Amino acid sequence: MTAPTTDGVLVDRYGRVARDLRVSLTDKCNLRCTYCMPAEGLPWLAGSQLLSDDEIVRLVGIAVRQLGITEVRFTGGEPLIRPGLVDIVSAVAALEPRPRISVTTNGLGLERLAPALRAAGLDRVNVSLDTLDRARFTQLTRRDRHADVLAGLAGAVAAGLTPVKVNTVLIRGVNDDEAPALLRFALAHGYELRFIEQMPLDAQHGWDRTTMVTADEILAALAREFTLTPDPAERGAAPAETWLVDGGPARVGVIGSVTRPFCGDCDRTRLTADGQVRACLFATEESDLRGALRAGADDAELARRWRTAMWGKRAGHGIDDPTFLQPARPMSAIGG
Ligand code: SAM
Ligand code: SF4
How far is the CA of 330 from the centre of ligand 2 (A)? Predict the structure, then answer.
């Protein structure tokens, strides 16, 4: 299947245009969140399989200059453990037209890195934090690093990486009683909180719909303490539905990927740490740009392959289809 010869944008058969590129910088991580990966970790990609810093910058450059990408988000695994992160951000910030640049991180080491990242051109961060309780954090992530995440959040604000967004996944019986407390915490610090429904993307294939905490449950829990009104701001392609808290201006978001899918408005394209384009988190197909790049393909050929990969994007993730198959790679390898 070949994409039409529409130069300049990543469009699919349903007319969706990808503007937002998620780049995984590594599949490795220094936490072991139970809903993401097993305690022993995973068989990590070999160094030779990973795109080099220069290869990443070249591919992001093609996406920005030739394919209409305006937002670049670095993720993983844990992007802050990639040694070249600051240099990659700096090179991407020098691209014309300059994309907006953000990072999704677990926050470990962010306190130290935030000023250098800001100076390199990073615009903002999303920091993942699922609990306010140190013991629970240790249970959920299998590492006693709660204080480092809190310090990372404060460091991000101090460095001007704002607005700082906080991503939270609620797990039934573990931290599902914390929604209002997490919102109070976020309001007190000026962070924008977004709850994410747990998705079938864990390496252990342990996801179970019946135990997933749904968007409706999260909203009901918040409504017991706060007045939530629909945010009048245009949602656009943003995955989070947002609500004004107690009249605003503070907001809270819920990403109901499973029960309130937003596939019809999706504007994402993904590049894995080993150079594969994925049209969707849940795609079962990947398109190998690394092989083509290392075989000497020029920018026009790489752009053509990227367009073809996106043209084949499916209408939706199909989690509710009886035929749904969880992708072979977990979220930590695809880039969350
Ligand atoms: N390590 C970084 C972090 O934790 O922010 C970036 C990668 S992580 C895969 C990105 C986001 O995906 C995090 O907010 C994490 O909580 C979330 N996540 C991981 N596994 C998930 C799952 N099965 N369902 C929903 N969200 C998940
Ligand atoms: Fe690491 Fe992020 Fe997965 Fe947690 S969610 S194990 S921090 S990649």
Answer: 11
For ligand 2, say whether the CB of 196 is within 6 Å of any of its atoms: no
Q: What is the DSSP letter of 171?
A: B
Structural domain includes residue 2: no
* Best mutation site among 108, 171, 257, 331 for ligand 1 pocket (most ligand atoms within 8 Å of CB): 331
Cα(143) to ligand 1 centroid in Å equals: 16
Q: Is 22 annotated as a binding residue?
A: yes
Is residue 271 included in any domain, yes or no? yes
Which CATH number covers residue 104? 3.20.20.70
Count CA atoms within 13 Å of residue 216 on its CB side: 3
The 10s digit of each residue's pLDDT in 5-17 is 556 899 999 999 9
Give 289's contacts (C-beta < 8 A, 6+ positions apart): 59, 271, 275, 276, 277, 302, 305, 306
The answer to whether 1 is a known ligand-binding residue is no
Residue 5 lies in a domain: no
253-303 pLDDT tens trace: 999 989 988 888 899 999 999 999 999 888 888 999 999 999 999 999 999
Closest residue by Cα to atom 5, ligand 1, is 105
| H/E segment holding residue 59 | helix 53-66
Please count the structural domains in the chain. 1
